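Internal tracking record. Fields below are filled automatically when a chain is submitted to the structure queue. Please do not edit lines marked as system-generated. If the sequence contains nonstandard residues, flag them in the REMARKS field before resubmitting.
Queue: standard
Priority: normal
Entity type: single polypeptide chain
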Amino acid sequence: MKSLNDYKLIVIFVGFVAAMVFGGGNAKADFTFGEPTNLGPTVNSSTDDMQPTISADGLSLFFHSDRTGGSGNSDLWVTTRNRTDENWGEPVNLGPTVNSSQWEYSPSLSADGLSLFFASNRSGGSGGYDLWVTTRATTQDDWGNPVNLGPTVNSSYRDLIADTSAEGLSLFFMSDRPGGYGDRDLWVTTRPTKDDEWGTPVNLGPRINTPYSDRSVCISPDGSTLYFQSNRPDGVGGYDLWQAPIIPIVDFNGDGIVDSVDMCIMVDHWGEDYSLCDIGPMPWGDGIVDVQDLIVLSEHLFEDVNDPTVVAHWPLDEAEGDSAYDSAGLNDAFLIGGPLWQPTGGAVDGALEFDGIDDHVSTPFVLDPAVGAFSVIAWIKGGAPGHAILSQASGVNWLCMDSVDGYLMTELKNSGRSSVGPMLSQAIITDGQWHRIGFVWDGSYRRLYVDGAEVANDAAPLSDLESAEGGLYFGAGTTLTPGTYFSGLIDDVRIYNRAVKP
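SYSTEM-GENERATED OUTPUT FOLLOWS
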């Protein structure tokens, strides 16, 4: 028999947590957490009692436990109280409609109390542990038969320990599926409305996930903070609790300041499902650009901002010299062959002019395409069939033009025997006009963009991209072969560690 020192439910009493759990308000990070308090023998047992989720009114606490009296190995239970200043009552098993003879884990109660998400290895899933949901019409009704979230969300690996955002449009969870950064990563799936199906999960990226185990995710009611568990270094020891702010991207045109230009961009897309401007309510909008997004934008007007997801940004605005500086990091690049600075000739301020013979720019290593979601966006003017715009040493051409018609294409492809090969668009970009081009990889699909419009995408999801660890070249192919050197102007190259819409 396990001792009470194993896994027990605890509570932290402090104004911060009261505001977060019971008020659903904007708790401030400058509050100090208090000492944890054990919920006592009425709630806790001599076995494992874990992963609590509390109702918005603070009167119901759901958790999983492998105590006796259940339907299987681990069941979902609930303890209740009449007032928040009372002690919790004797836990009640949710019964055989919800629980099975297998393992039920990590419940997460929706803000309205009508949906309970959990993980289970019961039959009828995609394999391993899947995410399921049981619903009820009112908080006084019994829970209904659980429904599997389906193969779009679940994988053949372990998908568990989920938490839903307050408005019910984002579901965060832990998974050890491929495409992550470590042993276990945090992912999110979203939907436009509660009546829609959940979308393809997206990895939260290297700012959250590490080569270690990142798990047990929880989002604050106001959508401003993500809490999770990790055994990464710099903690107290073993698995620690961590928090990370969720920051809206409000600098729509990427000029470093939130101003009237960004406001005009939002107004231009008012009433549309336009993800760039759909920033409210937090964490990631509600599928329409409206007053909720305007409120978020107004909170940041006239701020100098840096997009935290920009891995590297070469404005190419220098007037002279042999270096192209990375304004977002430490990836300063070197000019080779003598490309010319054009301080007033760019699409966004200055640009670099390449001669198509031997001019190119070389950067240090920036990222491995196989690691996770990323995007690259640049302005170009000129070029000819067969020219490369951006490539990776020891890798392939990320953005280039096909050798016949000058169509935008990418040679980034998945690995293994089922490789689908390069992606070719039908967009000609060699007409001598400025074009903003982009490649976006969301972990499942490749997409090519020209001037904000999607011009190519995968018909079916891919499992990965080929790995490479070389630096990047602007204006030359990956092997620096004659005929691949770009002739024309390149400006404002940006790389993100997320999928973006240019």
